[in-house]
Design brief:
By secondary structure, the protein is α/β, with parallel strands linked by helices. The protein has 2 domains: 224 residues, HAD superfamily/HAD-like (Rossmann fold), CATH 3.40.50; 71 residues, Alpha-Beta Plaits. It is built from 11 helices and 12 strands. The strands form 2 sheets. It has an 8-stranded mixed sheet with strand order 5-4-3-2-1-10-11-12, with helices on both faces. Helix 4 runs parallel beside helix 11. The structure holds ligand L263DTV3. This is Trehalose 6-phosphate phosphatase. It is an enzyme of class 3 (hydrolase). Its cofactor is a divalent metal cation. InterPro entries: HAD-like_sf, HAD-SF_hydro_IIB, HAD_sf, OTSB-like, Trehalose_PPase.
């Protein structure tokens, strides 16, 4: 079955050679030439700019990021919430027979599951390193032992040396986030640079997030690869011929999904900055437009 292949599939983990692994995907990550991304700024805009993309006879895979997409960015990850209408819409779409709902987050799997709170849907945590289907089937990216052995010492060193002046380490067991929002501006950059050096000295890869940096294992696995695995697993290798796909996200790590889904989906980047470079098909200038995206889908599939 689709779910059993999720468990059985095995991936070749990059070897203990961190540097080689870290360099191996850099060229394919290059952004396309500067282009103006069409903007969607109202519910009507979805219909106007994507006429006929969705129809109730064709199944939809709806892949959504959490922080900054379903929930507005807050001062602390513990203080995020989806507004009541978004929650209701999501719950409704989750049980629609033509809609496959998946949440793909940088948070730990259990954390994002508890925040969304919908049973029976697919979740990916830690940027896709951990995946759990609605029936409980799991896929954990097999990280090399040498890499895993560096994780705890990395957390310890970060806590000892840079968890200060308001900064703190979010330990998510296979990747971490170093939050520095509350560090005074005059020392923030220096402290962040030290955190980056510590992370890289342990062979982990750094990427920028909102007032935080992410430390991820240097493997060619991210939200893009995870999205493809999830889609293949659920709909088969020819998923692109059978279904429509929508992905929405707001962060650098979501760009991997937007890049991997190019041409076979419609992707939306939540970003206020009109100059932002993105692989997405459309830009949503405010986070609350995600609610309109969900309303557009509900209207198409339930009216
Ligand atoms: O992939 P996502 O679901 O978008 O998760 C990305 C990271 O989100 C969280 O951090 C970000 O959101 C926080 C709450 O709004 C905010 O305080 C922080 O500044 C942001 O960077 C989460 O804490 C991380 O673990 C996720 O990787």
């Amino acid at each position: 079955t689709a779910t059993s292949s999720l468990v059985k599939r095995s991936y070749i983990t990059t070897s203990g050679n961190f540097a080689a692994a870290a360099g191996s995907c850099s060229s394919s990550n290059k952004m396309p030439e500067k282009r103006v991304v069409p903007v969607i700024s109202s519910l009507e805009d979805f219909e106007r700019k994507l006429p006929g993309y969705l129809n109730k006879k064709t199944p939809l895979a709806l892949l959504l990021d959490y922080d900054g997409t379903l929930a507005a960015i807050a001062d602390n990850p513990k203080n995020t919430y989806m507004n009541v209408d978004v929650e209701k819409l999501l719950n409704r779409l989750a049980v629609h027979p033509q809609i496959f709902l998946c949440i793909i987050s940088g948070r730990g799997l259990r954390d994002v599951q508890s925040r969304i709170g919908i049973k029976g849907i697919t979740y990916a945590g830690n940027h896709g390193l951990e995946i759990e289907s609605g029936d409980g089937t799991r896929h954990d990216y097999p990280l090399a032992a040498e890499l895993k052995n560096h994780y705890a010492p990395m957390v310890k060193e970060l806590i000892n040396k840079v968890q200060k002046n308001g900064a703190w380490v979010e330990d998510k067991t296979v990747s971490l986030t170093y939050h520095y929002r509350d560090v005074p501006a005059d020392i923030s950059e220096e402290q962040k640079q030290l955190a980056i050096r510590i992370i890289e000295s342990h062979g982990y890869r750094v990427s920028q997030a909102h007032d935080a940096i992410e430390a991820k294992p240097p493997v060619n696995w991210h939200k893009g690869e995870a999205s493809l695995l999830i889609l293949k697993d659920r709909f088969g290798a020819d998923w692109a011929d059978k279904i429509k796909v929508i992905f929405a996200g707001d962060d650098n790590t979501d760009e991997d999904a937007m890049r991997f889904l190019q041409g076979s989906s419609k992707t939306f980047r939540v970003a206020a900055d009109p100059e932002i470079q993105t692989y997405a098909d459309f830009r949503l200038p405010q986070q609350d437009l995600v609610e309109d995206l969900l309303k557009w889908i509900r209207k198409t599939y339930t009216d």
